[in-house]
Each structure stands twice: as structure tokens, then as C-alpha cells.
Specification:
The protein has about 425 residues and is mainly β. It has no helices and 34 strands. The N terminus is likely disordered.
Length: about 425
């Protein structure tokens, strides 16, 4: 653009400044020189040329980059440049920072994503700041680049037999991160349950750890709305305990659990822990491999008042991490079981009649023939009837029994029925 002529900006004799309108300062610089003309038409030598500052703000990844031309017209470069930034609350331009007069670029790394920031540059002639030149106004929005890392879970574990603790590694990103937590109960659908800021763990209290295994996923979200890749799943251990019948008609507790999911290097081992009420002090009962998910507790003498179990998983790559299951207990109510037939034929198979039981403290059985004669009585659960009465074989027939027992906590039970003797 051509520099305006002195005539177009003519001033009176006593003026020391002039304002020019109809200029496009947002994209152009303007240069000015002053000359004096007397009444006779004589014109002085023009002054040194002074050139305005034109500022350009541009969004770059995670920041705004400011560039401007040096102010020209003073004998030396400006003493300093003040970077001014608009404060939308006060609606004023405030000093962001001050830089050396030989610089003409600045990076504002504190600019907010998705927000237009406006800037001005003020050139100071000297340290007094009394003489200065102001640039035009320029705005920019930081360029957004999604560099949010994928979440990495540390573990998920049952705590206090009522809650689940999920832990993940600390991640850093250009902007503040939130963590979105998703959960599935058993085979149910995946649902969003919580958003946390700057946390690395979450305690889930809205769970039923004795009924469901829970699977968790997390996603990181930054202040700009960017989302990370979804994490790998982490699944808690659900332990179930029941009684399994063995060949000796004694019912042994069997515990089963799901595969822990997951540590990157897999599960090294599971420790099956056993405890009893009321102390619930657990001792290691068995160590299983990474794919062995069942254990039968062989207890030839049932004496504890309660049989409770939990499983602890350990990873291959850490001596400190672990994940615990819920606590599952086998009911200690006394139970009696009876066969409905036995054969006294000297083949060595099923030759006697004996009840099976578990959690029995006291026991009494009486057996009667069809005429009401009591032909057998015992207080020992291990004592079986051999089909004889007064050392004589009883005939093949149906016989009737009444068995009574008490448990270790005083519960009383009774079992009545008939058994067929075959010869």
C-alpha cells in the first residue's frame, strides 16, 4: 500500500498528532514520516519513518503462536515487548508476559482448547514505558492433536468382601484428564457408571460380590473432549463354594472360581485360602496353576464350625500385586444322606447300610423291621448295619430307619425313610 501523502494528513501548526481512519490494520502495516511546511511553502526534510506493528496469532498443536514485525522508527530496537491477552471476565487486555525487544515471536502454551484467545503487542521504547506503540488485535484457537494414552489397569480386586477396587496407572497428557469408568455385571451389558478427575483408583460400592463377577473398562477424556482408546478389560474373581459327594458318602467342600482377567503377562498362580468363623483368619490351603479353577477340600474329619474360602491371584510379572475373590462359605448346617438299597451278596460292593453325613456332632440311628421290632441301633455315624439281627441274617425286605443328629452349632435334624435289603 502506498504511504499517504502529507497533504492527505495535513494538520494545523500546533498539532503534535494525527489519527488516520479507513485503514486495514488487521493485515497490513503502515509507515509514516512527518515533514513541516511554512507559510512560504518551504518543506523540511521528512522525519525518520515509523512503521506500525502487525500481529498474527495462529493455532499450533496445544498452543497459540504469535508473530509480529519489529516496530521501526526509534533509534534502536524496542526495549521490550509486552504480550497482552484479553480477559473475558474483565473485558480488558492484561499483560501475559514481557519479553526482550529483539524477539518477535511468542508461544502461549496456556491457551485453552476450543476457546478463541485474543492478543495485542505493546512495544516499549525504554524501561520507563512512557513511550510505546500498540499492535492490532489477533485471535487464535490451539490446534488439537489427540495424544491421549490408552488406560492401563493395575488390578481389580474384591475388598472387605463387599466392594471392588479398580486401579490404573497414572497417565499424562497435554490437557487435564478425566477417567470414564464402564462396568458389566456378570453377562450383563456394559454401562457407564462414573467419571473421575486426576484419580488412579475407584472403589465400587454398588456391587454384590457374592453373586457376580464384574468386568471394568476405562477411557481417558481430556479437557478438549478428546477420548483415548478403551482399556483392556479387568474382571474380578467370583468364588463359589458347595459340597461335592465322594465315594465314601462324605461330602467335601468344592470351590470354583472364574479366570482372573487380566494382567498383561497373565496369572502365575491362585492360592486357595481357608478360614472358619468367627475369626475368619485365613491360611493357605492349596496353590493351583493359572488354569486350575477348581479345588476339592478333602476333610475326613469335619470339626470346624464354619468352612469359608477365598482365592488370591498373583501375576507373573510382580511380587507385590494380587487380586482377591469374595469370601464363600459352605453352610455348616448338619446334613444326613441315606441310600435306598444295599445288597448282602458277598461281592464286596454295597454290603452294608450306612448313612452319610456332614457337619455332624452327635448322631443316633434306629432301624426297625415291618413288625416294629428294633433290630439295629447306633450312635456312631461310621457304624454300618450289616443286615443281621442277633447275629442272624435278616430276610430280603424293606426296613425302616429313624436317624437324629445335631450340628456343631446345636442345630437338630431328623431323617426318616426306608431301605431295601437284597440278598
Amino acid at each position: 500500500m502506498d504511504i499517504p501523502t502529507a497533504e492527505s494528513l495535513r494538520t494545523s501548526l500546533n498539532d503534535t498528532q494525527v489519527t488516520q481512519t479507513a485503514v486495514y490494520t488487521l493485515h497490513n502495516t503502515y509507515s509514516y514520516s512527518v515533514a513541516a511546511t511554512d507559510y512560504c511553502g518551504n518543506t523540511s526534510q521528512p522525519s525518520q519513518i515509523h512503521t506500525t506493528i502487525e500481529l498474527t496469532a495462529k493455532g499450533v498443536p496445544f498452543a497459540n503462536r504469535l508473530t509480529w514485525n519489529h516496530y521501526a522508527g526509534w533509534a534502536d530496537l524496542p526495549y521490550a515487548y509486552e504480550i497482552l491477552k484479553h480477559n473475558p471476565i474483565t473485558d480488558d487486555f492484561e499483560i501475559l508476559t514481557t519479553i526482550s525487544g529483539n524477539q518477535h515471536t511468542y508461544i502461549d502454551s496456556m491457551a485453552l482448547c476450543n476457546v478463541v484467545s485474543f492478543y495485542r503487542i505493546r512495544a516499549l521504547k525504554d524501561q520507563t514505558g512512557l513511550i510505546y506503540s500498540m499492535s492490532d488485535t489477533s485471535g487464535a484457537v490451539p490446534a488439537y492433536v489427540n495424544t491421549i494414552p490408552k488406560p492401563a489397569h493395575v488390578r481389580v480386586t474384591v475388598i472387605d468382601n463387599s466392594k471392588i477396587l479398580l486401579q490404573w496407572r497414572k497417565r499424562t497428557s497435554q490437557y487435564r484428564l478425566h477417567t470414564l469408568i464402564y462396568r458389566a455385571s456378570g453377562e450383563g451389558p456394559l454401562q457407564f457408571i462414573r467419571q473421575l478427575e486426576n484419580d488412579t483408583q475407584f472403589v465400587d460400592t454398588d456391587v454384590d460380590v457374592n453373586t457376580y463377577s464384574y468386568t471394568y473398562y476405562t477411557v481417558h477424556k481430556d479437557a478438549c473432549g478428546g477420548l483415548s482408546e478403551m482399556s483392556d478389560p479387568s474382571q474380578s474373581i467370583l468364588l463359589k463354594a458347595d459340597l461335592a459327594r465322594n465315594d465314601a458318602l462324605i461330602y467335601d467342600p468344592v470351590v470354583t472360581w472364574n479366570l482372573y482377567n487380566r494382567w498383561e503377562d497373565g496369572v502365575k498362580q491362585y492360592n486357595v485360602m481357608h478360614g472358619n468363623a468367627p475369626s475368619r483368619v485365613f491360611d493357605k490351603l492349596y496353590k493351583s496353576g493359572p488354569s486350575d479353577l477348581t479345588y476339592v477340600h478333602d476333610i475326613p474329619f469335619v470339626s470346624d464350625k464354619d468352612y469359608c474360602y477365598k482365592v488370591i491371584a498373583y501375576p507373573n510379572d510382580s511380587a507385590h500385586l494380587f487380586s482377591e475373590s469374595n469370601v464363600a462359605c459352605v453352610s455348616t448346617a448338619p446334613r444326613l444322606y441315606a441310600p435306598n438299597v444295599f445288597t448282602v451278596n458277598h461281592d464286596g460292593i454295597n454290603e452294608t447300610f450306612r448313612l452319610g453325613g456332614v457337619f455332624i456332632q452327635t448322631y443316633h440311628i434306629e432301624i426297625y423291621n415291618r413288625w416294629g421290632d428294633r433290630i439295629f441301633v447306633s450312635n456312631d455315624l461310621e457304624h454300618s448295619w450289616d443286615g443281621n439281627y442277633n447275629n442272624k441274617p435278616c430276610a430280603s425286605d424293606a426296613y425302616f430307619y429313624i436317624a437324629k443328629a445335631t450340628g456343631f452349632q446345636g442345630q437338630r435334624i431328623e431323617l426318616k425313610g426306608s431301605v431295601t435289603l437284597l440278598r
